[in-house]
Write a structure and sequence with these properties.
Radius of gyration: 21 Å
Largest sheet: 8 strands, mixed, barrel
Shape: globular
Helix content: 40-55%
Strand content: 15-25%
Oligomer: single chain
Bound molecules: ligand C2E, magnesium ion
Order of helices and strands: HEEEHHEHHEHHEHEHHEHEHH
Length: 292
C-alpha cells in the first residue's frame, strides 16, 4: 500500500465518522424538540389469542416523523437513551397510551384490549417514574389493569436487585410487566421468579426459525413449557407466515403478534379492527386463518 493510498483511505474513514457523528447530533437535537413540534405519534400492533383469533391486546410503538423524514425507533431510541431525551419522551408515550386505553375502554363497554408500552431501562432507573405514572393514570382515567409495561430481558435482569423495588411499586399501581425479546439474554429461571413479571414475549429470532429449524422449535417449546410452569402468559413476536402460526398453535402458545396477523396501525384503525371483529362473520373469517 502506497503512502498516498493510505492517506486516501484514512480521509474516507474520517469523513464517514464525521458524517455519522453529525447525523447522531442531528437526531439528538431533533429529539429535543420532537414533542413540542408534534412530530411523535404512536401506532398499535394487535396481539391475538392463538386459539380464538381475537384481539386481546395491542403494543404501542413509537414513530418519529422528523423534518428530514421518518426515523426508525431502532435508530432513535438508543440515542434518546444516551442523551436522556428518553425520559420526557417515555413519559409522553405512556401518557398517550393511557389516553388511548381510556378511549378504547369507553368505546367498547369495558371489553377493550390491554395496551402494552415499551419501557427503557433508563426510565426504570429514574425514581420519579412511579409518581409520574400514577399521576398520568389518574389524569387520563386509564385502567392500570389494562396496561402492560414491556422491558427487554437484558434491561430487566441487568440489575435485579435495583429493579425489584421500582417494579414492585409499579405493580402496586396495578400495572403488569412483560419480558420483551425473551431468549436473547441469558436470564436464569431464578431471576424470572423473583421479579413481578406476568408475561413473556418470545423473541422474533426464534419464531423466525420455528417452521424451518428443529432447534428453534425446541427452544420455543422449552420457553413455553417453562413459562406455563411459572404461570406466565406467553406471546410469540414476529409471526410472519401460516407455517409459524401453525407451529405456535401446536405448541399451545397463548398469544401471537406479527405482520402475518396485523401490522402496527393508527388508533383509528385499531378501533375499526375491533368493531369489525365484533361482527360474528368477521370473527369467523379471522378464525379461518388462525384455527386449524
Ligand atoms: P419491540 O418492542 O420488540 O417491538 C417489536 C418490533 O417488531 C416493532 O418494530 C414491530 O413493528 C416489529 N414487528 C412486529 N411484527 C413483526 C414481524 O412479523 N416481522 C418483523 N420483521 N418485525 C415485526 P419497531 O416499531 O420498529 O420498534 C423497534 C423497537 O424499538 C421495539 O422493539 C422497541 O424495543 C423500541 N421501541 C419502539 N417504541 C418504543 C417506545 O415507545 N419506547 C421505547 N423505550 N422503545 C420503543
Ligand atoms: Mg416491545
Ligand atoms: Mg420485542
Ligand atoms: Mg425486539
Amino acid at each position: 500500500v502506497s503512502k498516498e493510498q493510505g492517506r486516501d483511505s484514512w480521509r474516507r474513514f474520517s469523513t464517514d465518522l464525521t458524517a455519522q457523528a453529525r447525523k447522531r447530533l442531528d437526531i439528538v437535537n431533533g429529539l429535543r424538540q420532537a414533542i413540542e413540534r408534534e412530530e411523535l405519534h404512536l401506532v398499535f400492533q394487535p396481539i391475538l389469542a392463538t386459539q380464538s383469533g381475537r384481539i386481546q391486546g395491542a403494543e404501542a410503538l413509537l414513530r418519529w416523523q422528523s423534518p428530514d423524514g421518518p426515523v426508525s425507533p431502532a435508530v432513535f431510541i438508543p440515542i434518546a437513551e444516551q442523551s436522556g431525551a428518553i425520559l420526557p419522551i417515555g413519559r409522553w408515550v405512556f401518557e398517550q397510551a393511557c389516553a388511548t386505553q381510556a378511549r378504547l375502554h369507553q368505546r367498547n363497554d369495558g371489553q377493550s384490549p390491554y395496551l402494552s408500552v415499551n419501557l427503557s431501562t433508563v426510565q426504570l432507573n429514574d425514581e420519579r417514574i412511579v409518581r409520574d405514572f400514577a399521576a398520568i393514570i389518574e389524569q387520563t382515567g386509564a385502567d392500570p389493569n389494562g396496561l402492560v409495561l414491556e422491558l427487554t430481558e437484558t434491561s430487566l435482569f441487568a440489575d435485579v436487585e435495583k429493579n425489584l423495588r421500582v417494579l414492585r411499586a409499579l405493580a402496586d399501581l396495578g400495572l403488569r410487566v412483560a419480558v420483551d425479546d425473551f431468549g436473547t439474554g441469558y436470564s436464569s429461571l431464578l431471576q424470572l421468579l423473583r421479579l413481578p413479571v406476568s408475561m413473556i414475549k418470545i423473541d422474533r429470532e426464534f419464531i423466525d426459525g420455528i417452521d424451518k429449524h428443529a432447534d428453534a422449535r425446541l427452544i420455543v417449546s422449552a420457553i413455553i413449557k417453562m413459562g406455563k410452569a411459572l404461570n406466565k402468559g406467553l406471546i410469540a413476536e414476529g409471526v410472519e407466515n401460516d407455517a409459524q402460526l401453525f407451529e405456535l398453535q401446536a405448541l399451545r402458545c397463548q398469544w401471537v403478534q406479527g405482520f402475518h396477523l396485523y401490522r402496527p396501525m393508527p388508533e383509528q384503525a385499531l378501533c375499526e379492527a375491533l368493531t369489525h371483529e365484533r361482527g360474528a362473520e368477521a370473527a369467523e373469517a379471522k378464525l379461518y386463518y388462525v384455527v386449524y
